[in-house]
Each structure stands twice: as structure tokens, then as C-alpha cells.
Write a structure and sequence with these properties.
Strand 3 and strand 4 form a beta hairpin. The longest helix has 26 residues. It is built from five helices and six strands. The protein is an alpha+beta fold.
Amino acid sequence: MDMSPEEAERLVRSWLASERIEIREQDDPRAEMHLLVKYPQGKNGHMFAVVIPKNRDLLAISSMTRVDEGQQESMRGLMKTDEEEWKTWMHECRMQLIASGVDWGIHLGHSGKERPGPLQAFNVSEPLWFDGLTKNEMMQNLRSLWLAKLGVIHEIKYTFGAGTGSPGPVDDWKNKKDSRQRTGRPSSPQPTEIQADESMSFGEDFDPTDWL
């Protein structure tokens, strides 16, 4: 028997409540349900969007992280002093995200028509179709996305320091009208910004809002 969006929403809400996961309702005309949830619980939790898009039989879970302003400045320094080392670091980040098994996207700093860096933001995302929707699958997806985020965050902090505590700029969002280039899927408007104190998919610019 096919699961309806209403039934999927009821189940997702009950599973989140049973795990005592903090949620925030989001007003989204494109979605049957759009929640921000904190996972895992506690001070080290990250914010994830949990969305049932309209006219789709799936649950999309995603999270966006902006890179700290100070860390971006350190990246620019490496780009100037050792361009090959910067390219190697970015390659390793991409390979790490590919190995994580999740969908991912990166936002790199612009220089004219090129996007050499620094790394300004990245997102991770996973779709879960209704015919495979269980509490275990949903929670395991959250866990996989959280670990994928942590891997990149720790690589950034290890190489470029803890930063200043202020989120850096994201050129793709400032220039979203001109940033339609895609390797995998077409670009969507700036996503709802999910801030965490941490301060890459189908191509270089995959965006989880493409599921909507």
C-alpha cells in the first residue's frame, strides 16, 4: 500500500518526538512539511532540514554549512602561496564526500567567471522515498549526513584553524542570478541559511533544494 504525504508526515513527527529531537516549523509553500531539526542532541548538534516536497513521494534531509570568515582568509593565503597544495586539498575534500555516500554540493569563491575558491559553503543531502521510509532509515540518514559534515568540518579546522567565529561570504548566493552553471543539476535560489558554529554530489554545485 502506497504511503501518503500525510501519513509520512505523521510518522516522521512521531519518530522525531520519540527521540526527543528539537524541531522548528518552517513556512514553505513548496513543501507539505518543512522542519529544522537539531541532531544529535546537545551542544554539538547540527541543524538539518527535513522536508516532504509537494507532489513528491519522498522525504529530503539536508544541511548547509557556511565556512568561517577567518578560515576563508586562510584558504586565500594558501591559494596565493601554494596553488597546487590548495588544489590537492580541494580534491581530497571532494573524494572524502564521495566516499561518504551522501549527495553533496560545494560553493567556491568567484574570480571573474572562474570559481577557484576559497571554499565558502557546502551542503549534504539524502532523499528517502516513501516505500523505504522507516524510523531506522530516517535516523541512519541523519547520522550519515552528520558524519559527512563532521569530516569536512574537521579537515577545515585542522588545516585552516578555528577561524574568527563569523560566517564568511558566499558568492553563489550574492550572485545567484548569474550562477546557473551546473555540473549535475540546475541552480536554485539561496537556501534557508542554517547556522552552526562550524564554520561537496552530483557535480560541483548540487543543491538539496533541487528535491523540492
